[in-house]
């Protein structure tokens, strides 16, 4: 029988906030600059990058691009591009970002219940995540020391699907993985949490079409997600499916 859940670990991008399209728009501009400098004729749009690299941070994306196109960036140059990308993305987020529909209402209800501790576990850089949370009016729920970044929090930067960032977050929070639930929207994110031994709620509400939402629901269930959430109004039911004891929690009404 599952241990009582004490911590809810939220992915950020396209789970709490609608940021992926904005971020990949900025990433495409910089990726194309890198490819051009390497003499590679291929170019990406933001949508193409999103399909190929959703759930990965820019460092992980550059590692994959180097492998795909058989070139190598010195560490200093890679670090320079990662820093440039962060600045470009944050600028776009501060202009255009909005929260995922219903997420803020659920966060408010959960916070008032006092039942769970919250954290954000993301592949994105800490500074970018904090900028997103501030813009979306969610920062009050996630102090900086409860925001964990695979890109900047770990001794050795990595990206989901590596489970390192979830393992690190659980250690810092003093919470065994079985006492946590992760909320994830991507294959890499769900894989990361599952590999860390954390039950997963798969959020598919940020995908644009019903066909894509259904496709991702199946994909994330196949990876090992315990429940699928099409809308944040379903959160309590999904939390119960993930094995949480929410019988005496306040019910979330339709948002």
UniProtKB/TrEMBL annotation:
Instruction: Give the matching InterPro entries.
Output: CbbY-like, HAD-like_sf, HAD-SF_hydro_IA, HAD_sf, PGP-like_dom2
Q: Which top-rank group of organisms is this from?
A: Eukaryota
Pfam families named among the record's database cross-references: Hydrolase (PF00702)
Gene3D superfamilies linked: HAD superfamily/HAD-like (3.40.50.1000), Putative phosphatase, domain 2 (1.10.150.240)
Q: Name one GO molecular function term.
A: phosphatase activity
Q: Which CDD domains match?
A: HAD_BPGM-like
**Stated name of the protein:** Uncharacterized protein
């Amino acid at each position: 029988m599952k241990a009582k859940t004490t911590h809810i670990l939220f992915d950020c991008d396209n789970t709490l906030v609608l940021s992926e399209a904005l971020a990949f728009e900025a990433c495409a501009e910089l990726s194309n600059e890198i490819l051009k400098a390497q003499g590679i004729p291929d170019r990406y749009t933001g949508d193409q990058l999103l399909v190929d690299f959703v759930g990965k941070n820019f460092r992980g994306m550059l590692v994959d691009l180097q492998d795909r196109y058989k070139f190598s960036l010195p560490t200093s140059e890679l670090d320079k591009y990662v820093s440039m990308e962060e600045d470009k993305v944050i600028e776009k987020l501060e202009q255009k970002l909005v929260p995922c529909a219903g997420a803020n209402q659920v966060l408010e209800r959960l916070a008032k219940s006092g039942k769970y501790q919250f954290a954000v576990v993301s592949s994105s850089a800490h500074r970018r995540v904090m900028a997103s949370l501030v813009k979306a009016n969610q920062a009050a729920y996630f102090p900086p020391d409860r925001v964990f970044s695979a890109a900047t929090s770990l001794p050795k930067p990595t990206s989901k699907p590596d489970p390192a960032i979830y393992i690190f977050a659980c250690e810092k929070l003093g919470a065994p993985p079985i006492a946590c639930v992760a909320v994830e929207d991507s294959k890499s994110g769900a894989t990361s949490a599952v590999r860390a031994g954390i039950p997963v709620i798969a959020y598919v509400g940020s995908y644009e079409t019903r066909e894509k939402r259904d496709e991702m629901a199946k994909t994330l269930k196949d990876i090992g997600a315990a429940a699928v959430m099409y809308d944040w109004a379903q959160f309590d039911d999904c939390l119960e499916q993930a094995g949480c004891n929410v019988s005496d929690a306040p019910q979330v009404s339709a948002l």
